[in-house]
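Hi R.,

Here's the chain you asked about this morning:
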Amino acid sequence: MIELWFAIIAFLWTGYFVLEGFDFGVGMLAPAVGRDAGERRASLQTIGPVWDGNEVWLITAVGAMFAAFPAWYSGVFSTFYVPVTLILVGLILRGIGLEWRGKVANPAWCDVAVAAGSVLPAFLWGAVFGHLLSGSVLAAVVGGLFTLAVSVMHGGVFLALKTTGRLRRRARSAALAAAGATLPVAVFALSSLGGVPALGAMAALAAATALIWRRREGWAFTATAGAIVLTTLAAFMELRVRPLPGLTLAEAASGPYTLTMLSWIGLIALPFVLVYQGWTYWVFRKRVLMAAS
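And the predicted structure, written out as tokens:
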């Protein structure tokens, strides 16, 4: 049961980073690629139907950590209290900006809130996991820069995949520029993890760069998503051995009865969540079209 729930938590964090990764990227890029209010609105409309559902993955991942590995949960969120608090502030800012943007006369401050609320978690989650894995400030900074750059690249590809015309071309250019920054940072960030998943993540990022250049946004998005999956896999393979200094996975876990009850709850609830999210993405799968001016 312990290994099963560790795998479930790794899966939940992976889903969160893949889905919120492009949300963060779009939020950061919208003011840059959108040259007027209509283009910025169209950019944010690409994530409008899904961003709040994507955050459910974070809530579920954190809740699963609390229930299945309470010692790990308390250790992580007490050690990284300040960055986690700033992440929550960023998510609140982003939510306010997205919800209020269409309800105020001047949405410029909403765009700033969305951008700032995307930068904070995109950088800080990488910093938290980088420090958790190595215990050094340098690793935290490199981890933060890596997740920030990957989010911009991932979001740029998603934006190009979901828009048309000038906005699509600018988003593709932004994704290509982000790839130029992502690849060297990825070498430093992933070399510390090592193993096949880390090498696969670097290869996926290189493939994504080539695919963006060839204007194959669908395959490029698959490649950036694959890079995030492999990076998260590599990180959790390290955490499986030592989730916290001086703490093993078995010591961090709840008792057998709790894990058994959680397994039944997860078996019932998780398929519904996956089906609902899949249906949401299917319904809103088409490109966002610019309104005629």
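DSSP finds twelve helices and no strands in the chain.

Let me know if you need anything else.
M.
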